[in-house]
Amino acid sequence: MKKEDKQILIQTLGEKLKEYAHFYLVDVSGLNAAATSDLRRKCFQQEVKMVVVKNTLLQKALEAAEVDFTPLYDCLKGSTAVFFSNTANVPAKLIKAEAKDGIPGLKGAYAEEGIYVGADQLDALCAIKSRTELIADVVALLQSPAKNVISALQSGGQTIHGVLKTLGERPE
To answer: How many angstroms separate the Cα of 79 from the Cα of each of 8, 16, 131, 142?
Structure first.
């Protein structure tokens, strides 16, 4: 590969690192062509961009980035695919669902401005809530007290109405 082509690839990877908020380094060495194609298809369906890269080119792109990715450099061995995503937990859930005998396996990840190294971090990454999930949780928490007040007011009205009705029906 020519030096100019390598520079273009490094530049493209650098742009992807800026474009997507989260990325995962995945070991796909045990997958055959059909399994890799199937994995790409599933990534596409879940809005995850899968790119198979050379480790040295990816390391140069990571070095050129504004964030310090040094803990991830040790993960750059063997066959590496990068899963780019704007939702932190989607690639983790995809890897967990597709993993058979540890293939594909998580090498490392950069999610929610944190660096995760090792396959044992997969459960922690799956547990990360996306922005929309957090907003839904906050809305539910905000609605809960209002629902309780409305419920109490409605049941109080029912109780008062029942007492008045009973008193009205009583013979004098």
So the answer is: 21, 19, 31, 47
**pLDDT average, residue stretch 24-31:** 84
Distance from C-alpha of 170 to C-alpha of 172, rounded to nearest angstrom: 6
The answer for residues whose C-beta is within 8 angstroms of residue 80's C-beta and 6 or more apart is 25, 26, 27, 28, 52, 53, 55, 58, 107
Reported confidence tier of residue 157, pLDDT bands at 50, 70, 90: low
For 67-114, what is each residue's pLDDT tens digit?
A: 888 888 888 888 888 899 888 888 888 888 877 765 778 888 888 888
Strand partners, 105: 27
The DSSP bridge partners found for residue 151 are none
3-state SS record for 119-130: HHHHHHHHHCCC
**In DSSP terms, which residues pair with 23 in a beta bridge?**
84, 110
DSSP string, 15-56: HHHHH-SEEEEEE-TT--HHHHHHHHHHHHHTT-EEEEE-HH
Q: What is the pLDDT, as a whole number, of residue 163?
A: 67
Q: Distance from CA of residue 157 to its chain's centroid?
A: 46
CA 88/CA 121 separation, integer angstroms: 13
